[in-house]
Amino acid sequence: MSKRIHPQEVMKALGAVRDPAGRGIVALGCVKGVEVGEGRISVALELPPPISVTTPAGQQLLRAVHQAVEALDAGEVEIHVARPAAEAAGASGPAHPPGAGHGRAPAEAAAAAPKLAPGVKTTIAVASGKGGVGKSTVAANLAVALASAGRSVGLMDTDVYGPSVPMLVGARRDPEVIQGKLEPPTEHGVKIISMGYFLPKDEAVIWRGPMLHKTVQQFLGDVRWGNLDYLVIDLPPGTGDIQLSLCQTASLTGAVIVSTPQDLALTVASKAIAMFQKLNVPILGIVENMSYYVCSHCGHREEIFGHGGARLAAERMGFAFLGEIPLDLRIRTESDRGQPVALDGLTPQGKAFRDAAVALEAEVAKMQVAEEIVIE
Ligand SMILES: Nc1ncnc2c1ncn2[C@@H]1O[C@H](COP(=O)(O)OP(=O)(O)OP(=O)(O)O)[C@@H](O)[C@H]1O
Ligand SMILES: [Mg+2]
User: Fold this and answer.
1) Is the C-beta atom of 136 inside 6 A of ligand 1?
2) CATH entry 3.30.300.130 includes domain 7-95
3) What proportions of the chain, in percent to the nearest 5, are helix, strand and coil?
């Protein structure tokens, strides 16, 4: 049986919850009331503008509220979201029809922008603060690991300067145009699209911002993705305007940040995190790549770049730590021959990626807590 607590204790727990800009929601006046009943706690909230319940940031905030209250172990948690007075005055009917998010992924519930790929439930960007940390390797292996777990998965390579996904997955087939739409080839159970299929080999292509934006729109809207549980998006390195525009076009459910152990200890990955926060895109978690090295001859483990920096940083920033991927010769050689190691979950390398995919799915599922929310 759950214990009975005082509403003030609930307020105290909510005091630790912050909005994406780092402001405490109690201090901001977002908590409009707390009621403690028999085995049940109700929290009335008003989200700080511009956040709304239909945005990923809103859902992340509601999840944080839910978790904070649930941790008190005092019964079922109910969250009522009232619309800000200004918004309520300007519109009739509920901000979002009650139950409209039911059974849907958060991105789909984010109805503000029309979705370019409406059959895609969950859209996840894989990003990093800097190049060469293994984003594409992690994106490809997460996609393969999710497909191995029975999910329908697509992998979209938005790196037009150095598209590496076709090589990583083998690219045995090319996309086909069927009735004006691109049919993505399926490799290892994952539907793939990449500029690498269309670019002349060994030729530099100069891209301008608007062209890039259009390419991503086409990759989302003109590709026959069908119904997908997950669309994994491999982003180009960096956190500039191009990445911002890509993320905005793709209406993301969340982002996975890849870092090597030493980066995160430094501040590079936090640049990527800041970019997503600016866009109100939740961070689903951090993967530490090239985490440690195991000698293929003697099995000795070396921590070349240090180890655990990403886990510590994730804890400090309040994000999930999704796992550690070793620096391993096999990961590189198998990647080079188009056989992502996650295809074999029995190898330690493959297991590392599959475990990270399990952790990622758990984080996505947690975001769906927002579905239980009653909207007033
Ligand atoms: N855990 C690992 N162990 C060994 N090699 C790895 C590992 N992760 C990535 N690599 C290798 O490091 C190189 C860079 O990886 P990858 O292309 O995935 O990085 P990236 O962050 O996508 O790079 P870019 O910023 O250029 O897009 C590749 O040769 C890849 O095979
Ligand atoms: Mg890459």
Assistant:
1) yes
2) yes
3) 35, 20, 40
pTM for the whole structure: 0.72
Nearest residue by C-alpha to atom 2 in ligand 1? 327
Architecture of domain 120-367: 3-Layer(aba) Sandwich (3.40)
User: Residues in the chain, how many?
Assistant: 376
**Which DSSP string do the residues of 47-96 spell out, in sequence order?**
PPTT--TTSHHHHHHHHHHHHHHHTT-SSEEEEEEEPPHHHHHH-SS-SS
Q: At 99, is the pLDDT very low, low, confident or very high (cuts 50, 70, 90)?
A: very low
CA 290 to CA 293: how far, in whole Å? 7
Are the CB atoms for 244 and 276 separated by under 8 Å?
no
- Supply 54's token pair: 């239909």
- d(CA 209, ligand 2 centre) in Å: 18
List, for residues 100-125, the tens digit of each pLDDT value. Answer: 232 333 333 333 445 678 899 999 99
Q: Output the six-digit token pair for 224.
A: 């026959």
Show me where the domains of the chain are located. 7-95, 120-367
Q: Is 137 in the pocket of ligand 1 (CB under 6 A)?
A: yes
Res 80 pLDDT > 70: yes
Q: Whose CA is nearest to atom 15 of ligand 1?
A: 134
Ligand 1 pocket member 243 (CB < 6 A): no
Residue nearest to atom 16 of ligand 1 (CA): 134
326 CA to centre of ligand 2 in angstroms: 18
